[in-house]
Amino acid sequence: AGPLRAAAAAKSRFIGYAAANSPLANEAAYRSIATTEFSQVTAENAMKWDGTENVDNAFTYANGDAIVASAAANNQVVHGHTLVWHSQTPGWVQGLSATAMRAAMQDHISNVVGHWANNPVVQSWDVVNEVFDENGGMRTSFWYNTLGQSFVADAFRYARAADPDAKLCINDYNVEGINAKSTAMYNLVSSLKSQGVPIDCVGFQTHLAVQYGFPSQMQQNLQRFADLGVTVRITELDVRIELPADSNEIAAQNTYYGNVVKACLAVTACTGVTIWGFTDKYSWIPDTFPGQGQGLIYDTNYSPKSAYTAVLDAF
Ligand code: XIL
Q1: Which among 206, 83, 89, 80 has a CA at the least distance from the CA of 141?
Q2: Is 16 within the bounds of a domain?
Q3: What is the complex's ipTM, to 2 decimals?
């Protein structure tokens, strides 16, 4: 009968949520679930580049600090998200020359990671996010186009220098099963490890959709990464449905939620599962995938759905 965090702790895993600042500050019902059900927190937006350095060298930490303070007060750990990404990064970064862009990246990482480096609550970072395309090539982002692939290793080195104790992750989506994209990620992590680049963990976003099916061989995929000597984690879990949802889709959603938790539990190096929100009242899905929704484990009135029970029972 919960809370989720007790069930997860019994299996030595975290169960986390992505925090939105406004309801965390303003809605008691949101805050109550956020602080009692979960043992880990990721800022949904507050620690991204546009949230921390929208103007060059003018750092803004109030929203990130609010999430970290809530976590600290409730015995939760924080996963920093995210340092180097092609999205939610201001235009002033995107237009820089190679030399200036590398310097801006180092300065950003030093400042943002450094801001929370001495806070024991903030234990890990997504250093680079979504660097692959769907075919297994490097995404042709402004980072890659300007700096080439070396920006990845550089970002990890800058992050390690800024906080030697933080666990440093690479994070992506559509890499949960064994496919061309996850194999490219596997090869990159293997290469980074063999070069001595400081990488500790791999994040699997796990934005699933009932209509696309469950990722093939998820447990085996997590395990092959673990065998490289990194930990793995589920970082942004949700399971969207084409609306209106029917009972078959709800049943599949429950199965998917349970299967993700079971895949993590089956891999010793899987440290936990973060859900990308918790209530359908606040979810990126309807804004990003028109006509889809109901992807989380509480409904819009903060009642737990059957997906909540699926997660609880899988732990
Ligand atoms: C999303 C947030 O949920 C939205 O609020 C925001 O408008 C866009 O970004 N992959 C990621 C997350 O790594 O940072 C994204 O979060 C969802 C996809």
Answers
A1: 89
A2: no
A3: 0.99
